[in-house]
Specification:
Layout (H helix, E strand, L loop, with lengths): L2 E9 L3 H9 L4 H4 L3 E9 L5 E9 L4 E10 L3 E9 L2 E12 L5 E11 L5 H26 L1
Helix pairs in contact: 1-3
Length: 145
């Protein structure tokens, strides 16, 4: 069974800066705590990554997966292409310009492991991933802005 987690944070940076931070997958191992490797496998005509392989240290195990990315003016979304431990990994970052130099960043994640995991632990893990990612995006975007 999949669990969906949605959280939001306000970032003192414009949407373009945040979009650049989120879309710079090659640097994820430098600032996303659990990401050990991020390899861009394919890009679109504008140079945005459309397929990325990740290796994550998920505390209780290391996992490898490949995500396919799509972009709109305000959203970066992904879906699972392949994984050794996940049946489903879908999500998005949605950016909303507040018009005052800040941006609301909403992260939605739907995750389902291939192995049975009690619901409480799945939800706790998904929330930890979302909260950590938002905290790290906020910190990096605000340093960049």
């Amino acid at each position: 069974m999949a669990d969906t987690v949605t959280e939001q944070v306000q970032v003192r940076a414009d949407p373009d800066t945040i979009f650049e931070v989120i879309g710079d997958f090659a640097t994820y191992p430098e600032w996303q705590d659990e990401v050990q490797e991020a390899e861009i496998l394919a890009t679109d005509e504008d140079g945005w990554a459309t397929r990325v392989r990740f290796v994550l240290d998920a505390k209780i195990m290391t996992t490898t997966f490949v995500l396919d990315y799509a972009y709109t003016d305000t959203t970066i979304s992904w879906s699972l292409a392949h994984s050794d431990t996940l049946r489903r990994n879908e999500g998005s970052y949605t950016l909303a310009d507040r018009g005052d130099g800040t941006t609301d960043v909403t992260y939605t994640l739907v995750i389902e492991p291939t192995i049975p995991v009690p619901g409480m632990l799945r939800r706790r893990a998904a929330k930890r991933i979302v909260d950590g990612a938002l905290m790290n995006v906020k910190a990096r975007a605000e340093r960049t802005a």
